[in-house]
């Protein structure tokens, strides 16, 4: 690629704005008059009413909407909806207020629920202005109450304030890099942003996703904890202000569309788990089922500059005997950084296609990255033709510049670029065609959609009149370029690497000095302008009167992305102001549909960076540009738990960190921790050191040990994903979800559960040989067993226990009362699936355990055959009940039962035909653990083809 430095500003050249939450001179919306309800009509579903402005126009941050409609609907027993929207909508302004159900599904009334059959009550008052509250019928507690606060509804600003109990416990509001427990002094800003390109994801700043859902738990001294949830279906830029005794919800437009979830279950209780299930199944849709192979380990990095290098990585993993399932490529493979086009020298398509075929022969997979920006060809250079742009231009399917009517042309890695207008059906056919065309050249197995926030590295349609300069260089140094080597290392690095730390410090100082005397790009021209004033009847889309705390320079919405005034070509000429937070969601959906075309009948594997509520229906997600720091690893647990809540269970972060450099201490710990996230991948950026798992011997050993556990548990994890897909369950779980009545767990997020039965206690601090953790439920009937020794943990209730944690070891404990379906770990998931099964039962205080496993081909969108096997150990007998037609050929090799109180004398194996086998399996016993081995002869046609029972005799 011939690169020409562009004359683009390096930072925002538009107004520098103070976020309204930090602006002491900003208007107080709560001084507005509010609304008065009239014409109230009750019906079977709920009620409707008119809302009229109760005083003079306020114009705090926009033009007041004088007449509104209130619609309250008891949609299901567990869910109540409150909608407030303008009474007078025209065809031109519908989309600026109403989020189309064709884009984001709208939860609907079930046709049966009424106010009398609902878990929830809606009450309202006109004194002193319209206010409402949602309460729980079973105990009368208010879950959401605007009493004492006014409703504000303007054309660029909405505000709803709810009263909260003292020291409330709220979780969720993904995506954020923050403690899992959000606290009462936190502002969540929602405006999808690529903010981590140079220094990593910002803590407490807006990043890639918008999931306006929170779950609240309330602890009651003399009764069970209660939980409920709130989902705000609005895609505009918004903020949630968590403060003492209140939560304030503010948006830059749209409607008030709130869904209240009781969290109540069939037993009358209300739990966080049930609340989350209700959100997934009833509000945003159940997540897609994943391909089995995606649960393997994956490797990627920016810096695999040619096909030989990436093959060497595959070979090195094999030599080190570290399982590798998928190899990924970053934008190194592109010709001129352009999606869908291979570099003909470094990644020639013919050689690459043969290489991928060899991967497939070894049961390994390939996943490339694509960018959602599309290079715009230089019109004065005939050799600069770029098919994806030309084909899209023929369909006129790109987002437009409202000032010129031409395509909106921003700047990204390839140079001046455009973006698909996914409000148009033509964009789907265009996107599908590009992926098919590329797949015909290189048979990839899945797709990662990157920069789909969407990201642009200039302000406005900066390519206008400059296309003859294409390809231009982005207005920043690309990672790994001269003067852009990353010299950041994790905390504690100097303790074990003192001489290296000195060398790194000197090199960083030298680069910093060179940067001060070298200006690769023109410096920016900045101006300062205060908060803009609302103009009656008009909307300022680029600099709205309310300034959200966007992490981009100047907090401006126009920075780092497509400008909010860019337009779509749908009938309403919808603007990016309304659609910005939905771009990544739409691209991910389009990619899902394209992959369905490429792989008919097969589950698509698409991973997206930009997400919105409901993205889990068609996409997985990773944590983006995290950093090689201990703090980033620690916060990855919270990051993951919030995505479990958001309905994106196939989530993981880049193990060992993406930006900056890792070391063997951090990487050993992180590779072990990440082995218990659903998505498991090591990736880092250019300009940093290599960090593949084989680079350090300690990391290699830690990885092998953790992967051995993970791969043995693949069926357990796959079953968790199945129940996420069918019921809305979570895969990773907060301790407080499984032990809801223990208030001491509400801020515990240095540990987590994988499913209900595995407790993970990672080391999260440098240069440590021990770790502290709690064992919830002890003293209340719960037992915990060390995964590796199966010895029971003896601890006091709520005791913070110090555990041994050598560098290559991660503490894993199995919960009593569980039965796990295991397989001998192989080098790939395919090899593992062909290995014999085993069962592990860890008994509770009542000598009881249970479990299930879901089996299918791991591939089909709608499997022709499935099987569910249920296990129960009770009264000295293990009962195995199997149903379904899927055939798993591997036999059952052994069964281990831990936690027995007395030693058995023998064992009997009996099939579902109630006939005993002529011989008895081998039986061994030691320290409360029974080992039943050599079972393969009893299940020659497959471990679970027939139901059976195994009885211990005494």
Could you characterize what this model shows?
A 9-stranded parallel beta sheet has the order 32-31-29-27-23-20-19-34-33. An 8-stranded antiparallel beta sheet has the order 2-3-4-5-18-15-14-11. Strands 9-10-17-16-12 form a 5-stranded antiparallel beta sheet, with no helix packed on it. Among the domains are: 35-173 and 211-284, Immunoglobulin-like, CATH 2.60.40.1760; 836-954, Immunoglobulin-like (Sandwich). Helix 6 (425-441) crosses helix 10 (583-598). The protein is an alpha+beta fold. Strand 19, helix 3 (307-319) and strand 20 form a beta-alpha-beta unit. Helices cover 19% and strands 26% of the residues.
- Strand-pairing-aware structural class: alpha+beta
The CATH architecture of the domain at 35-173 and 211-284 comes to Sandwich
CATH topology of the domain at 35-173 and 211-284: Immunoglobulin-like
Largest sheet data:
9 strands, parallel
- Alpha-carbon distance between the termini? 77 Å
Oligomer: single chain
What's the average pLDDT? 94
- Principal-axis shape equals globular
CATH homologous superfamily name of the domain at 35-173 and 211-284? glycosyl hydrolase (family 31)
What is the topological layout?
Blueprint: E1 4-5, E2 35-42, E3 46-53, E4 67-74, E5 79-86, H1 94-97, E6 120-125, E7 131-136, E8 142-145, E9 152-154, E10 157-163, E11 169-172, E12 186-190, E13 209-210, E14 213-220, E15 223-232, E16 238-243, E17 246-251, E18 256-261, H2 272-284, E19 297-299, H3 307-319, E20 326-329, E21 334-335, E22 338-342, H4 349-361, E23 365-371, E24 373-375, H5 387-394, E25 410-412, E26 415-419, H6 425-441, E27 447-450, E28 472-473, H7 493-496, H8 498-517, H9 576-579, H10 583-598, E29 606-608, E30 611-612, E31 620-622, H11 630-646, E32 651-652, E33 654-655, H12 664-674, E34 680-682, H13 697-712, H14 714-727, E35 732-733, H15 735-738, E36 752-754, E37 758-761, E38 770-773, E39 784-786, E40 801-804, E41 811-815, E42 818-823, H16 829-834, E43 837-842, E44 849-855, E45 867-874, E46 877-884, E47 892-898, E48 906-911, E49 922-926, E50 929-933, E51 948-953
Parallel strand pairs: 1-28, 13-30, 19-20, 19-34, 20-23, 23-27, 27-29, 29-31, 31-32, 33-34, 43-47
Antiparallel strand pairs: 2-3, 3-4, 4-5, 5-18, 6-7, 7-8, 9-10, 10-17, 11-14, 12-16, 14-15, 15-18, 16-17, 21-22, 24-26, 25-26, 35-36, 36-37, 37-41, 38-40, 39-41, 42-43, 44-45, 45-46, 46-51, 47-50, 48-51, 49-50
Helix pairs in contact: 6-10, 12-13
């Amino acid at each position: 690629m011939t690169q020409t430095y562009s004359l683009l500003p390096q930072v925002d050249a538009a107004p520098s704005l103070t976020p309204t939450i930090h602006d002491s001179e900003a208007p107080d919306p709560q001084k507005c008059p509010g609304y008065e309800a009239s014409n109230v009509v009750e019906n079977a579903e709920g009620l409707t009413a008119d809302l009229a402005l109760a005083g003079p126009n306020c114009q705090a941050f926009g033009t007041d909407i004088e007449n509104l409609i209130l619609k309250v609907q008891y949609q299901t027993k567990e869910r109540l909806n409150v909608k407030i929207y303008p009474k007078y909508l025209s065809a031109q302004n519908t989309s600026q207020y109403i989020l189309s159900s064709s884009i984001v599904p709208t939860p609907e009334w079930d046709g049966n629920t009424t106010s009398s059959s609902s878990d929830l009550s809606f009450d309202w008052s006109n004194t002193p202005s319209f206010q409402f509250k949602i309460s729980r019928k079973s105990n009368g507690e208010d879950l959401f109450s605007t009493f004492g606060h006014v409703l504000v509804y303007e054309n660029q600003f909405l505000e709803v304030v709810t009263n909260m109990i003292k020291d409330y416990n709220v979780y969720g509001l993904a995506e954020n890099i923050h403690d899992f427990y959000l606290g009462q002094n936190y502002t969540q800003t929602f405006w999808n942003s690529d903010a981590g390109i140079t220094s990593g994801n910002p803590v407490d700043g807006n990043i890639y996703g918008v999931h306006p859902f929170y779950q609240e738990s309330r602890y009651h001294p003399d009764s069970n904890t209660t939980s409920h949830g709130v989902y705000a279906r609005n895609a505009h830029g918004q903020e949630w202000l968590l403060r003492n005794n209140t939560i304030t919800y503010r948006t830059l437009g749209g409607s008030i569309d709130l869904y209240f979830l009781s969290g109540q279950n069939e037993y009358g209780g209300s739990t966080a788990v049930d609340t989350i299930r209700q959100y997934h199944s009833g509000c945003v849709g159940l997540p897609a089922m994943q391909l089995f192979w995606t649960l393997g380990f994956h490797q990627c990095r920016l810096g695999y500059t040619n096909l030989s290098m990436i093959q060497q990585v595959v070979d090195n993993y094999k030599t080190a005997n570290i399982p590798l399932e998928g190899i990924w490529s970053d934008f190194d493979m592109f010709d001129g950084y352009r999606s869908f086009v291979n570099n003909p020298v470094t990644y020639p398509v013919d050689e690459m296609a043969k290489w991928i075929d060899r991967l497939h022969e070894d049961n390994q997979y390939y996943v490339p990255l694509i960018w959602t920006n599309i290079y715009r060809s230089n019109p004065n250079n005939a050799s600069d033709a770029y098919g994806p742009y030309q084909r899209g231009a023929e369909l006129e399917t790109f987002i437009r510049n409202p000032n010129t009517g031409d395509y909106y042309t921003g700047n990204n890695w390839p140079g001046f670029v455009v973006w698909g207008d996914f409000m148009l059906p033509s964009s789907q056919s265009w996107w599908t065609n590009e992926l098919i065309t590329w797949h015909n050249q290189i048979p990839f197995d899945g797709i990662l959609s990157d920069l789909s926030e969407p990201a642009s590295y200039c302000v406005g349609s900066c390519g206008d009149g400059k296309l003859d300069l294409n390809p231009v260089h982005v207005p920043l140094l690309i990672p790994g370029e001269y003067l852009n080597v990353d010299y950041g290392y994790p905390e504690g690095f100097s303790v074990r690497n003192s001489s290296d730390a000195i060398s790194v410090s000197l090199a960083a100082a030298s680069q910093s000095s060179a940067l001060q005397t070298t200006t690769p790009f023109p410096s920016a021209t900045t101006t300062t302008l205060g908060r803009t004033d609302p103009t009656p009847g008009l909307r300022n889309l680029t600099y709205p009167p309310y300034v959200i705390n966007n992490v981009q320079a100047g907090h401006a919405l126009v920075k780092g992305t497509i400008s909010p005034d860019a337009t779509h070509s749908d009938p309403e000429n919808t603007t990016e102001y309304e659609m910005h937070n939905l771009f990544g969601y739409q691209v991910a959906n389009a990619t899902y549909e394209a992959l369905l075309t490429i792989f008919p009948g097969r589950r698509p594997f698409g991973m997206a960076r930009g997400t919105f509520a409901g993205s889990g229906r068609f996409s997985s997600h990773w944590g983006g540009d995290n950093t090689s720091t201990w703090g980033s690893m620690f916060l990855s647990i919270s990051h993951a738990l919030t995505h479990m809540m958001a309905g994106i269970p196939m989530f993981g972060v880049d193990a060992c960190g993406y930006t900056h450099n890792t070391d063997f201490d951090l990487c050993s710990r992180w590779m072990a921790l990440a082995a218990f996230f659903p998505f498991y991948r090591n990736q880092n950026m250019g300009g940093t050191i290599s960090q593949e798992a084989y680079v350090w011997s300690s990391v290699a050993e830690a990885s092998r040990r953790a992967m051995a556990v993970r791969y043995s548990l693949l069926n357990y994890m796959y079953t968790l994903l199945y129940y996420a897909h069918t019921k809305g369950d979570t895969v990773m779980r907060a301790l407080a979800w499984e032990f809801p009545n223990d208030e001491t767990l509400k801020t515990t997020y240095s540990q987590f559960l994988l499913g209900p039965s595995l407790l993970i206690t990672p080391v999260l601090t440098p240069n440590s040989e021990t770790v502290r953790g709690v064992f919830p439920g002890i003293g209340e009937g719960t037992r915990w067993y060390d995964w590796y020794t199966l010895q029971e943990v003896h601890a006091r209730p709520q005791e913070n226990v110090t555990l041994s944690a050598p560098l290559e070891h991660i503490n894993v404990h199995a919960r009593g009362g569980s039965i796990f379906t295991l397989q001998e770990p192989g080098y790939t998931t395919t090899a593992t699936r062909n290995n014999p099964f085993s069962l592990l039962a860890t008994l509770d205080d009542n000598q009881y355990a249970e479990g299930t496993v879901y089996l299918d081909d791991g591939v089909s969108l709608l499997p022709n055959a499935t099987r569910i096997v249920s296990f129960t150990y009770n009264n000295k007998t293990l009962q195995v009940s199997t149903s379904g037609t899927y055939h798993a050929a591997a036999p059952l090799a052994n069964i281990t039962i831990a936690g027995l109180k007395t030693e058995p004398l023998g064992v009997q194996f009996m099939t579902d035909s109630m006939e005993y086998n002529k011989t008895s399996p081998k039986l061994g016993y030691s320290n409360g653990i029974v080992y039943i081995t050599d079972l393969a002869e009893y299940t020659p046609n497959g471990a679970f083809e027939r139901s059976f029972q195994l009885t211990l005799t005494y």
